[in-house]
Specification:
2 domains, ribonuclease MRP activity, three-stranded antiparallel beta sheet, five-stranded antiparallel beta sheet, alpha+beta, RNase_P_Rpp40, ribonuclease P activity, 5 helices, Ribonuclease P
Amino acid sequence: MMHTLNTDLNTDNVIVLDPEGNLSLSLVKDAYEKFGIQVQHRSKASMKHNKYIINIPLKDNQLHPGSKQFERLKWCLENTLTQTFKLVFAATDKVTGQSVDIEWPSQVKKVTKIDIEPQFETLTDIHIPSFESINHSLNGQPAEDWDRHVMNALEWIGLAYIRSNRIKAKTTKAVDPFISVYKAPAPYLDSQTGTLIKWKGLLPTPFIHNVMTMIRKLMVPDIINHWTSLTVYGYRDSPYTWKGKEHYAYLNSENDYTFLMMPEHQTAYTLQFYGSHHSNV
């Protein structure tokens, strides 16, 4: 996998290589006109943002060294797209899914290896909701206000991730109700202590699977006995979002999702936002 860093999707050139071997180049008009490979189809969204998205399936049998398509792509990348990019890469073993080191060609001048290590933090003196209002039989229909309870849960989880004082059980300074009237959703658990674990980087799908497996193993001996959540945030400047929709600022949501697991009830919920702008354009 590969993704450009420190780029703005609406105004900069963005390059992405997904795990399926699809290379996507989201180019501004000037770069596209110099690049040398044409876009087969432009969506209304691309036209509106004056961007051109070139998609190249690198696993295509016709795209191999010596073929016309390969040599054309190679020439364009070496001669017309001369901008310098800061990129992040990740590679995994096809069989085990474990991360592996990349053997870089001699032309690469500078590479920095970044180890993805967990960051642990204990949150104390916080109101922890039980989220009982979310649980319902999967064989029946949820309560009429179920969506509201789900949104309240997502809001609390988000506040916990940023270690907000709004979820504190006790605060040294009262919050002006003109600024915030937030209150954590009741009922609360007896415990007022939680653990926040964060990984940061370009995380391959097998890595996320392994984290989920570890969480489920902790549920068996009741180390996690009430609930736990796992949230994955996608890159904000990725050219595509859910269901292959083109992605721009304020268009077609973000590549984020949350798993909320409740071992006491043996249920789990997957929460994704498509947004009001997730359209067919």
